[in-house]
Amino acid sequence: MLKSLVALAAVVASASAHYTFPSLVVDGTTTPAWVNVRKTNNFNTQAPVTDVTSPDFRCYDTQTNPTAQTITVSAGSQLGIMSDGTIYHPGVVNVYMAKAPGDVDSFAGDGPVWFKVYEIPAVTNGGQSISFPAEGVPGVSFTVPKALPSGQYLVRMEAIALHVAQSFGGAQFYISCGQVNVVNGGSGSPGPLVSIPGVYTGYEPGILININYPVPKNYTQPGPAVWSG
């Protein structure tokens, strides 16, 4: 009986440690869950993606056939992405965007169309310690590049949990894609452009990593450089 209770407690603790990113923050207001964000497969289970080659690695929505409303944001303004709790695990964050050729509602994000607009890496000091500024925060906020051309975009949140990333496939990816219409944009050329899936192999030193022992001397953020315009 005691073993069963312990096992149940472990399952509950594990589930509570997982999270989704169902909302955006525009003009300081958090949008309702799954209104401006495509509903992900894990909207109930909160389970992560662990296969970086999976079709679900893009927007994690292959089972939900999601629809979302597109919300307007101005280039140069703040855009936030909120979880349904906190980013519970030690790890890092990347935010990607991809411009739709027209209406983002029907845009799948195929091919090399994604560029990184924001990241929160780990902080190291030569092997003495490693810390994760993204750990424990309820969401992230970044400036939409002023030079970003006007148009409709997918905004992809990617929180990479690294607490069991010492073996291949151990890193946990918590993902969602919101839909935004960027206005008052500029004439920049975002890049480098990457495909998702395709941007990672899973063997990158920032994905396949033991963060506990020995303490890493440095940390290499996965993915391309941030485009800030």
What's the helical proportion of residues?
under 10%
Taken as a percent bin, the fraction of beta residues is 25-35%
Mean pLDDT: 92
Shape: globular
Largest sheet: 5 strands, mixed
- The main sheet orders its strands as 3-11-10-5-6
Order of helices and strands: HEEHEEEEEEEEE
Counting DSSP H or I runs of 4 or more residues, the number of helices is 2
C-alpha Rg (nearest Å): 18 Å
The total beta strand count reads: 11
Distance between the termini: 59 Å
Question: Explain this structure to me?
Answer:
This protein is mainly beta and 229 residues long. It contains two helices and eleven strands; from the N terminus they run H-E-E-H-E-E-E-E-E-E-E-E-E. Strands 3-11-10-5-6 form a five-stranded mixed sheet. A hairpin with a 5-residue loop joins strand 7 (123-124) and strand 8 (130-131). The longest helix has 15 residues, at 2-16. The radius of gyration is 18 Å and the shape is globular.
List keywords for this structure.
globular; 2 helices; 229 residues; single chain; mainly beta; four-stranded antiparallel sheet; five-stranded mixed sheet
Task: Describe the structure in brief.
Strand 1 (23-26) and strand 2 form a beta hairpin.
List the helices and strands and how they pair.
Elements: H1 2-16, E1 23-26, E2 29-30, H2 56-59, E3 71-74, E4 78-82, E5 91-99, E6 114-120, E7 123-124, E8 130-131, E9 139-143, E10 151-161, E11 172-183
Parallel strand pairs: 3-11
Antiparallel strand pairs: 1-2, 1-4, 4-9, 5-6, 5-10, 7-8, 10-11
